[in-house]
Amino acid sequence: MAEPGAEEPDERLLLLEEPPPQAELPRRGPQSARAAPGGAVRQCGEPGLEEVGDSEDSAPEGDGEDEPLLRAAGSGRGRRAGAAWDRERRAAAGHTGHTADMNIFLDDPEFAEIILRTEQAIECGVFPERISQGSSGSYFAKDPKGKIIGVFKPKSEEPYGHLNPKWTKYFHKICCPCCFGRGCLVPNQGYLSEAGAYLVDEKLGLGVVPKTKVVWLVSETFNYSAIDRAKSRGKKYALEKVPKVAKKFNRIGLPPKVGSFQLFVEGYKEADYWLRKFEADPLPENTRKEFQSQFERLVILDYVIRNTDRGNDNWLVRYEKQDDGLDLSDKDSQWTITKESIKIAAIDNGLAFPFKHPDEWRAYPFHWAWLPQAKVPFSQETRDLVLPHLSDMNFVQDLCEDLYELFKTDKGFDKATFENQMSVMRGQILNLTQALKDEKSPIQLVQMPRVIVERSSTGSQGRIVHLGNAFTQTFHSRKPFFSSW
Ligand SMILES: Nc1ncnc2c1ncn2[C@@H]1O[C@H](COP(=O)(O)OP(=O)(O)OP(=O)(O)O)[C@@H](O)[C@H]1O
Ligand SMILES: [Mg+2]
């Protein structure tokens, strides 16, 4: 089926009950007391309390990543107290550019502990290691013993980040911006998309995205500009020679980088590997059902966030066939009791939340739509899990607000663009709700006409815009003329 291209709002405009538009999305009670969902609370000092001098140095990274995260108002420590505490921490650490005071996860001590271990590892020389594959700077973060515990993707090293170590992307951007990249995505906000995907996963109870939050880290293995490295060296030298002067620097070390930190999941392999295996050696019925249920959750996640990068290398599967040793017959293996477990992990969610549906000629398909699992109607279990949420307008509004709290922390945040992102997401949710109610299959879902649900700027009602008969999925195996990320 071909996909018509133009995204023209057509004749079918339906009115939709929605909360009144607000100039600024409200920060709900408990929300305002904690960090942006998926984000760290940066315990900032008040300007007056900052050390004097070397003012440009207060930027976490010399590349303009100077947008403070949410202030920790109401976090249990007043801002003034927080500032003093911040200064003490920084002084105690010799203000060497470490990040302990930037990564505060008051509502998630387990995650805070993992980040602390990563920071401790870095301090004792066990640095994050760049993942060799991939088109951007992504790093395996380790604990002090060298065990991989997370995947960190700094904003500035994303495909179109200015410090992307893989220069070909930079070349694409400069020389032929219209032919490469995804014109429907907000550039250089992949780390928010990663954290946003986890937020959606968590709110819907899908459980397929490893925990992912916004974190600040500094490591000499990251890609820094020569200027940043020279500045850091110069200040260290000054500290040795003229400690009095050097005390005025806010930071001696390299600038911290903001990025997404995803927990590392162990025992998983790329889906491609297992899919081939399962083709040759089909799963037992119980495990097949379990896999189908996990697969449906992946579909729901991808569809809601309109992931544009779900190849079969960007989701992982862990399949364990455990022999519990209860062998009732030595010879006859059919009596051997085995426990099997299968689990999907949706990684690499950095290219989602488009602000418009992808254009026809480079419609980024959901690659799972070609799998046999996509032909099976959504199970009752999956429908029971998500339908009550998705069909509830308040839930959807709440989801948008949580994403707003997260996305607005980026220095390039633009309210209008965010609204467009939410219009696409609400449209996806509308389609998905209908598909689940109608007991459709994933393959039928991706053939539904694209739709956006806009928030009205004038009245108390939003509107649903059906985008002609356009389809989000094209069923041909032809690749776009230009390939990209
Ligand atoms: N949370 C995780 N747990 C375990 N392994 C992971 C995790 N995230 C990533 N990996 C491993 O690291 C590899 C690269 O990760 P990912 O695809 O997210 O990075 P990337 O830099 O965006 O790469 P690409 O541009 O190729 O998509 C994956 O193929 C996977 O093997
Ligand atoms: Mg990948």
Automatic annotation (TrEMBL):
InterPro entries: Lsb6/PI4K2, PI3/4_kinase_cat_dom
GO cellular component: cytosol; early endosome membrane; endoplasmic reticulum membrane; Golgi membrane; lysosomal membrane; plasma membrane; trans-Golgi network
This protein's UniProt keywords: ATP-binding, Cell membrane, Cytoplasm, Endoplasmic reticulum, Endosome, Golgi apparatus, Kinase, Lipid metabolism, Membrane, Nucleotide-binding, Transferase
Keyword Protein biosynthesis attached: no
Composition bias type Acidic residues, residue spans: 1-10, 48-67
Primary location: membrane
EC number(s) on file: 2.7.1.67
Endoplasmic reticulum as UniProt keyword: yes
Any one GO biological process: endosome organization
Subcellular localization: Cell membrane; Cytoplasm, Cytosol; Early endosome membrane; Endoplasmic reticulum membrane
Main enzyme class: transferase
Entries under Pfam families matching the protein: PI3_PI4_kinase (PF00454)
Domain PI3K/PI4K catalytic: 125-455
Molecular function in Gene Ontology: 1-phosphatidylinositol 4-kinase activity; ATP binding
Similarity remark: Belongs to the PI3/PI4-kinase family. Type II PI4K subfamily.
PANTHER family noted in UniProt: PHOSPHATIDYLINOSITOL 4-KINASE TYPE 2-BETA, PHOSPHATIDYLINOSITOL 4-KINASE TYPE-II
Protein name stated in the entry: Phosphatidylinositol 4-kinase type 2
Organism: Taeniopygia guttata
